[in-house]
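Page 47, continued from p. 46.
Same chain as before, 409 aa.
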Amino acid sequence: MSVITIFSGSFCKEDLVVREVLVKTGYKLVSDEEIVAVASRASGMAESKIRRTFSAKTSVFNKFTHEKERSIAHLRLAIAEMLCEDNLLISGFTPQLIPDEISHVLRVCLIADVKFRISEAAKEAAAQEKDAQKLIQKHDGDSALWINTLFGKNDPWDPELYDIIIPVDKTGLEEAAALIKENADKEVVRTTDLSKKAVEDFVLGARVDVVLAEEGHNVGVKAKDGDLTLTINKHVLMLSRLEEELKSIAGKVPGVRSVETKVGAGFHQADVYRKYDFEVPSKILLVDDEREFVQTLSERLLMRDMGSAVAYDGESALSLVKEDEPEVMILDLKMPGIDGIEVLRRVKETNPEIEVIILTGHGSEEDRKVCMELGAFAYLQKPVDIDKLSKTLKKANEKVQNKKDQRKH
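Result:
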């Protein structure tokens, strides 16, 4: 038998087509939600963070945390292990992670013109035309970034990515489902010993990818009969040392027979390879209206391998907290608009797990008492010694990570 995957534009009758295909084939449905749940349990990352991988808006902290790359590694392993079964229909973003070498996968794309999709949005989501266009643009943007991340292509509906593209505005449900079943029954997409071996290679490569990701590395991984090829796509100053470390880590994964490293096309670009250090704070939000001070502070923290984002007022800080979930904040008190004490109060009400370090040049003893009562981790005065601030940040980060570990267990 075979595996069917469906990648769809928004408001292209995906659910209806999937339901019809399941009736005709008797296949088992696997959704993005199920794969995300498996990846979440294996990684210890929240499902919401893993789902964000499919969003066009990447976290401002990602270049320091590599959460997106870790999420993709765990999603790849989850779907790879599911492919050990046959007779599956996998719908959503995750099927794009399945490599071409697995020949018993029928790749289907559902799409329609914008006018049709707007009409469907009005029915499904009771959306006005303007709102429907925004919903469609948002989903298309997410789809385009996902495809670009995986394949370097800008068109999510590129025919080269699929075996069948079905225009649902011109094809009825019954006809679409019959077409999918007819192609899924063809000899060319039947499971063979060779395609089963390709699944085994995919699983091994995905397991190595996860192990490397959890050690802070992000490289391309290919497996063939137990032989691994690791591709380094970012410039690194000490290449031989990195290669030795990668080989040492990957070589310990059960099933790996040999490990080869090479540099890819991206190796010669200006971006620099950075191993993620889980012990160092990498999701710090700096909030201060003194732009020169806060930019300099951000640079000084970066020199200590600490990743940070910057907000210049309380309102922007609260928006970043909502969107990007920092783990530690360094917060000034005196700012225009929403002041630091109010920001602290709101953060502790909505995100009490965030540790907040007050850093101010204008605070009083009364301010210090109020901040500590509201749950601030520390109260520091400007100017502050960078080593003292670094130690305070690391202690705050340790508290955050300890709480995460306790929740896991």
